[in-house]
Amino acid sequence: MSTDTAQTIEATNQVFDHHLGAFAKGLDELLKDYNENSVIVTPDKTYRGVTEIRGFFKAFLDGAQPAFWDAFKVTCKRTEGEIAYLAWEAKPFIEMATDTLYVRDGTIAVQTFTTLSA
Questions:
Q1: Domain 3-116 has CATH 3.10.450.50
Q2: Cα(111)–Cα(34) distance, rounded to whole angstroms?
Q3: Taking CA 20 as the corner, what is the angle to CA 17 and CA 24, rounded to the nearest 5 degrees?
Q4: Per-residue pLDDT tens over the stretch 50-88
């Protein structure tokens, strides 16, 4: 693996790990991983920019019951270059969910998010 590739993976992992840890610290901490050009694509809607992304995460956090966080479990976490992939569950609330992040210049440029419920 080249030094550039290793540095890219490390930079992606830093953003990825911050993103995962930010849920415990709140909305403002989560939003540090995004900028005005960031986009989150879901089956229902595409959220563009920090204001819309704030609304997406506020609804997600406000809707999560306390037991959701106890049930949250990462089932797969991988990084390849600027791409980070996460599969997770929070049974019985969410059977399976996936997030894919494209990290560019220290922020999440594009994220996809899908949940599958029973």
A1: yes
A2: 10
A3: 125
A4: 999 999 999 999 999 999 999 999 999 999 999 999 999
